[in-house]
Amino acid sequence: MFRSHAFRGMQTLASSFALGLALIAGFAATAQAQTKIRMVLNWKYEGPQGMFFLADDRGYFKQEGLEITFDQGNGSGAAVPQVANGAYDAGFGDINALIEREAWGGYRTEFYATYDYRALYKQEQAKNP
Prior knowledge:
Shape: globular
Distance between the termini: 42 Å
Strand order of the largest sheet: 2-1-3
Radius of gyration: 17 Å
Order of helices and strands: HEHHEHEH
CATH architecture: 3-Layer(aba) Sandwich
Number of domains: 1
Structural class: alpha/beta
CATH class: Alpha Beta
Strand content: 5-15%
C-alpha cells in the first residue's frame, strides 16, 4: 500500500515538475519534438536529488516532451545566478538566493516550490526535572 502511494506521489511530482519546466522555459511540449533543457542541481548527486533521476529513469519527463540534462551544483545559492546568466535553462536552488537576487535588482523569474517546509531549526522536547 505504501509503495503504490509513494509511486503515485513520485509520478505526480515528476509530472508537475515537468509541466513547470515547460512553462518556465516557455515551450509547448509536443510528443514529436523533445524540448532540450539543461538543469543545474543544488549539490552533488546524492539522495535529495534522487527524485529527478528516478523520474528521468521512469520516462516521466520524456512523456511530457522534455529531454533534461542534469549537472551537479555547487550549493543551492549558486544555482540561481547560473540560471540568471543563461548558463542553464532551469535550476534546483534556494529560495533565499532568489529573493536576494531580486532585492538587488535582479531578474524576474518563476519558481516552483518543491518542499513545503524548511529545516532551518531544530526543536526538541525538554525533559522533566
